[in-house]
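Run 4-aminobutyrate aminotransferase through structure prediction, thanks.
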Amino acid sequence: MSASRAVRASNALLRAVSAPSAARATKPVALLRESRRHFAASARTMSSFYQWEPECPSVKTEIPGPKAKAAIAELDEVFDTRSLNMLTDYAKSSGNYIADADGNVLLDVYAQIASIPIGYNNPALLKAARSDEMVNGLINRPALGNFPPTDWAHVLKSGILKVAPKGLNQVFTAMAGSDANETAYKAAFMWRRQKERGGAHVEFTDEEMSSAMNNKTPGASELSIMSFRTGFHGRLFGSLSTTRSKPIHKLDIPAFDWPQATFPQLKYPLDKHVAENAAAEKAALDEVEHLILNYHIPPCAVIVEPIQSEGGDNHASAAFFRGLREVTQKHGVLMIVDEVQTGVGATGRFWAHEHWDLPTPPDMVTFSKKAQTAGYYFGNPELRPNKPYRQFNTWMGDPARALLFRAIVDEVERLDLVKNTARVGDYLYERLEKLAAKYPGQFDNLRGKGMGTFIAFDNPRRDEFLARAKKLGVNVGGSGQAAVRLRPMLIFQEKHADILLETLEKIARSW
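Sure, done. The structure for 4-aminobutyrate aminotransferase is below.
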């Protein structure tokens, strides 16, 4: 089945789903029969959640091929292409497969840096995109702080807030992950200063008002946000000061003098290094507490990723995160969980921090990527600023993207995709363990057991490894210095895992 024909099939399925109720009873069945005949789909393909993707990768040329090279050269005249991974033909991409200008179709387990939740050209999202609500949100894009639409509360409650982490019943919507983190930082600073003043009812002094205009204290607070070494929280000014993954992200950019703690450097396999790993986590928590008490610019919040993604896919135990929650509460410091990359089902739970069984929820949880929108959840009403316009910008998010997230949530629930990710992740991890034993040195420090498909391993020739995978029809990503990270979509199934595993073994066997 070609990718372009698969997209046409998805459109046909969409038309059937959108048909009047009298026709819906028979059309989908007839259409699926036609699809079987037209594409000669095998039993293996028909086990997919959707019947609109290819059966397997197809590599026809080098990547990039001649058409892509010409298009890249044209693009480079007006746009920096030095970080380009693959020039993509989105009209021909479908499901778990990404296509390029030369007709190459790859199994995509990188998924736009972990941001595609339910596949390219998904019929449910096509339906949402063609709705009157979507058209209204796109062509009359509201300045949400000043002119929210009449149905904005309903859109939030039926989508973004429908899947809010336990105990967090409010949301501030934003544009991207960096934006979500920076607005969460602002909320933390305002919350802390409000407490120091004596409450929301206490007015600002004239000195605070005037000094703020000159970037001086007391109007500009002397507070900080603590982050962890090898963490990543975005590339805007405030978020960049908490990003510690690679120097190239930070060079030449002015930064705040904010503290960083050591993220536990666990040794694998975990069951063979229990005592060492427990000691590393205790040392990290002791360092966090020391910085809270002694850093010369006091932290009002600690931000942490459930899994440090860009910094090399670094994991820690649930006990570590429970300890972090205990330390932050003990000293009146907020805990912000950055779920930009881990959120929306990727780890076998809708939110990765659900694995921790925290006694009390985090103070804020930031999100983006697979949500296709962004923002932060919170529960404490004191985290809502005491005055209007303190947490504000023109757009304050995007209703169109919120509508897409709602459609994603509905589809995740309809197909039980979080459970699917947990099951497929276990299947994939078990087989990767066998590859690691069979090919020593090629799948080092395998990690992510029990964390859905959020799996990674180290390879000493990582960049060459990724290039070889692409030549064999699989698009894989890396992070840190040596990590190969797997970031498939929520519709990734065992049959896709088999293709991936076969490709990885071909590479390992050839070295």
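The chain has a mean pLDDT of 91.
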